[in-house]
Design brief:
single chain; about 290 residues; alpha/beta; Rossmann fold; nine-stranded mixed β-sheet; globular
Length: about 290
């Protein structure tokens, strides 16, 4: 399939209705299923540069996390890490996916681990990319979790996100990219503008922040030991959010780590700046060529 055809196919949104929740996903390619989970505050579209290469070998399913993108729910519990995993398990079953590989970046990697715990018999591989680490707190997020509970916080956050200077600062996306110019243009149009244009999306993003509990994350010091499928790490080497040295220490908690790849000049959203490298490493891992 030509790259333009893949891009067109991946641009189409699909929805799974699960009672009080509605899960959005994008799909492209042919072959074994590969599920892709994104980080905060993005959507499944963050995989748009990676999927064209992956789609030659895999059927790619990129889900929007609950509270981000176009996935919605009326239940607060669905915004938690465990609640999200349960919804994605049901959504995959509803789409007829019987077995799948799983990849997650940033908070998508946390939720990928929750899903692997819940649905481990069907998860063939787990790839983690610059994601939360038990006992470690990423810069600013705990502060944001407190601030979003305050009166007037939606207005303040909206004004901040609308500021190019804030977006390029370390409090915004400055620590997520090696090249700060990557924050402007398409990235802002795809991931920031939809939040700024919708009060509902901003409220849902706040709910996401409030329900992701670091106390739950810290339990993964032990829970990682239950993830027996092959695991690979694809890590942006200069990420200030989740430092590589701390990630390597976390890798020792898994019983079946196949590979830890360090991606030079990569930061948190390495799939945005180095999609070819990410796709190449994922294919190596998933096809057993390491």
């Amino acid at each position: 399939m030509e790259q333009s055809q893949v891009a067109g196919e991946f641009g189409n949104r699909h929805f799974v209705d699960l009672g009080n929740a509605r899960v959005c996903y994008r799909r492209a390619g042919e072959g074994p299923a590969l599920v892709l989970l994104h980080g905060f505050p993005l959507s499944g579209l963050t995989w748009r540069k990676v999927v064209p290469q992956l789609s030659h070998r895999f059927t790619c399913y990129a889900f929007d996390l609950m509270g981000l993108g176009d996935s919605t729910s009326r239940h607060v519990a669905d915004f938690s890490s465990e609640g999200q995993a349960a919804l994605f398990q049901r959504a995959l079953a509803a789409t007829g996916v019987s077995a799948y590989a799983l990849t997650g970046n940033d908070t998508g990697g946390w939720i990928a681990r929750e899903l692997a715990l819940l649905d481990g018999a069907r998860v063939t591989h787990l790839a983690l990319m610059n994601t939360e680490i038990p006992g470690h707190r990423p810069p600013w997020i705990p502060l944001y979790q407190r601030l979003v509970r305050l009166p007037g916080s939606r207005f303040v956050f909206g004004r901040l996100l609308a500021s190019r200077g804030f977006r390029r600062s370390t409090m915004g996306f400055g620590g997520c990219f090696e090249n700060l110019d990557s924050i402007d243009g398409e990235f802002t149009e795809l991931f920031v503008a939809p939040i700024l244009s919708s009060a509902e999306r901003l409220a849902a993003m706040f709910q996401f922040l409030m329900q992701m509990k670091f106390a739950r994350l810290d339990r993964f010091r032990e829970l990682h030991g239950k993830l027996s499928m092959p695991v690979a790490f694809l890590w942006g080497a200069v990420d200030p959010t989740f430092p590589e040295a701390t990630a390597r220490a976390m890798a020792s908690q898994f019983p079946n780590v196949v590979q830890f790849w360090s991606i030079p000049k990569g930061k948190l959203f390495v799939q945005e700046e180095q999609p070819e490298m990410v796709a190449e490493l994922l294919i190596k891992f998933l096809t057993g060529v390491v």
